[in-house]
Amino acid sequence: MTSRTVFLSLLAAASLSTAPRPITVWIAGDSTAAEKLASKRPETGWGEMLGQYFRPAEVRVANRALNGRSTKSFVSEGHWRAITDSIQAGDYVFIQFGHNDEPGKASYSPPDVFKKNLSQMIDEVQARGGLPVLMTPVVRRRFDANGRLENTHGEYPELTRAVATERKVPLIDMERGSAAVLQSFGADSSAKLFLQLAPGENPNYPEGVKDNTHFRPLGAELMARIAVDGITALKLELAAHLHSR
């Protein structure tokens, strides 16, 4: 190996070692965002679709959303701590809860507890130099007789908006965005966004399935686009790392 070759190799290694660290976008949330097992496909969480919108050398998505979790259980089971222990300055944490905080759920968080939990999450992200972004929960597919979406989340989306305003942190309104998408498809056609399968259509669901909460790939991708549109509308620094659209 010539001295010039050695020099160029060292120069390349030095360049790699000084390359900026990719920003990590952490997702804390429930099953609507979570990564799915192969045995559950074609069910897809919107968080699985988010990374494709960013330049991979600049942003990585760490999807830590989990099925059935609320703000209360996500913290009590240690999943939140696993995120905060890993945050580095400049990372983003997208926080989307509400589905499982609602009354009747085993992980129920009363409204005052829900707000307190979100506020504590904000504190802990900011204490580590991270950037919290609150997200309202995506809607469920439930239409009334007049073809209008019904509210299935009660006051939890509004509580999320209130915390974002009080704490002056960015909010991506996934509820309103997803409602607009479902209304544009309509009561019947919106079924194609969700995990709706006829018996025998997929070996993972031999008896079929009619799920109006969880998404197929198309629905998950449209929800991820709502998140990306929110990033752009809020003019987050993160938007500079999106692929040209």
What does this structure look like?
The protein is an alpha/beta fold. Helices cover 36% and strands 14% of the residues. It contains seven helices and seven strands. The strands form two sheets. A five-stranded parallel beta sheet has the order 2-1-3-4-5. α5 (156-167) links the parallel β4 (131-135) and β5. The chain starts with a helix and ends in a 12-residue tail after the last helix. The relative contact order is 0.15.
Keyword list:
globular; 7 helices; 245 residues; five-stranded parallel β-sheet; 7 strands; alpha/beta; two-stranded antiparallel ribbon
Mean pLDDT: 93
Task: Give a short account of the largest sheet.
Answer: 5 strands, parallel
Q: Helix/strand/pairing class, anyone? A: alpha/beta
> Biggest sheet: strands side by side, in what order?
2-1-3-4-5
What gap, in angstroms, lies between the N and C termini? 45 Å
- Weakly predicted, low-confidence segments: 10-17
Compute the number of strand runs: 7
Quote the beta fraction: 5-15%
Tell me the series of helices and strands, N- to C-terminal.
HEEHHEHEHEHEEH
Percent in helix: 25-40%
Tell me the overall shape.
Answer: globular
In angstroms, what is the radius of gyration? 20 Å
If helices are DSSP runs of H or I spanning 4 or more residues, what is the number of helices? 7
